[in-house]
User: Fold this.
Amino acid sequence: MIKIFLSALLIATTVSIYSINIASVDNSMISLNSYRGKKILLVNTASASPQAVQLAQLQELQNQLQDTVVVIAFPSNSFGNEPRSGSLLKAYMRDSLGLTFPVAERSEVTNASANMLFRWLGSKSYNGISNAATTTDFQKFLVDGNGSLIGIFDSSVKPTSQLMLRAIRM
Assistant:
């Protein structure tokens, strides 16, 4: 399933995404406010997922469009595919895979136990656009430079696909 929201249809967000801070796998905070003016691609990841090959594709996308978009990974065991956490997750993401984009610490991305960002993404009352439950690993959410949700892509959409590249460049 793919949802793309045209900017003409956007309404003011109820809660600003820029007010959200997330703990990173590097023991620091990821302040979404620091990405104001850039598109943000938020992806729930899982290293044991059948779609885990997309981690390298996310790095390729980040390298290719780093002036336009920032990729942020959100490792989660919400679907039973992320066995790593803490220092093991950091070692895997940074050392084994060589990922350079921001990676959050492992957290839940579904239901009431979801981290604040994924509650924002999944609730129209927070994001002002759509109720979009996270339903699978490697679901992608695209936020524009003004902090509005503009696209939701399921795991079948590869990060380097033409569809994704067009959505980011719009």
